[in-house]
Amino acid sequence: MRKPLIVGNWKMNTNIPQAMSLVQAMLADLDKIPLVEKVLCPPFVSLSAIKELVKGTSIRLGAQNMYFKDQGAYTGEISPLMLIDSCDFVILGHSERRQYFAETDELINKKVRIALESGLTPILCVGEKLEENEANRTEEVITRQIREALASIKPSNKLVIAYEPIWAIGTGKAATGKQANTTINLIRSTVANIWDQDTAKSVRLLYGGSVTGANIAEFIVEAEIDGALVGGASLKANDFVSIVSQTAVLKAAK
User: Fold this and answer.
1) Active-site residue 132, yes or no?
2) Pick the CATH number of 5-252 from 3.30.70.1230, 3.30.565.10, 3.20.20.70, 3.90.25.10
3) What is the pLDDT of residues 93-104, one digit of tens each?
């Protein structure tokens, strides 16, 4: 059975003191919640400080991005070797990286590959734009993104994939649970076609896109959705705790 996973992506928010305060505001409550894997992804500058705060707890950490080389003359980049001592997960291919920093499926493939080789768990993000959704191209876009991201990579049940429809990110307009589950079922089928059925069944698939404590239940009750990649709501201690708590209760009831 796949363990539910809730990931908080803080994006470019909080300085170190603010990040520490946010963790302190939710740490005790989060740590008490069983059955759900909890991951916080603060900005790079706060990883070391937060690592000390969560030491000895059930909270795990992730980075928001990384480069596909271990070291070298790549000014401003962060390598997997720099991350491996600070966190276990890394978000790759987020739509904001694709949109604002021109990241391609080929580049994301290189990042996924080295993440797995380095012992990090990649959270691969895929999702279609509004115009693609309205043109009924969701299946085409999602299938292409996954196939290219996983090209020539050996099967791994460490992989996590997050479906984030771009039209729902930060807009307050989430997909419905049924919509999300349909696309996530497509993702699992695509992984099975690329790798194999057993690996596809073990890969955790998340929904992301305007997830809050008020709507998390709609997604978590769906069979193929194993958790959520949470943006803005992860910056609100009470809301994030609520998302994790509801996930634990609803998944335990299934």
Assistant:
1) no
2) 3.20.20.70
3) 999 999 999 999
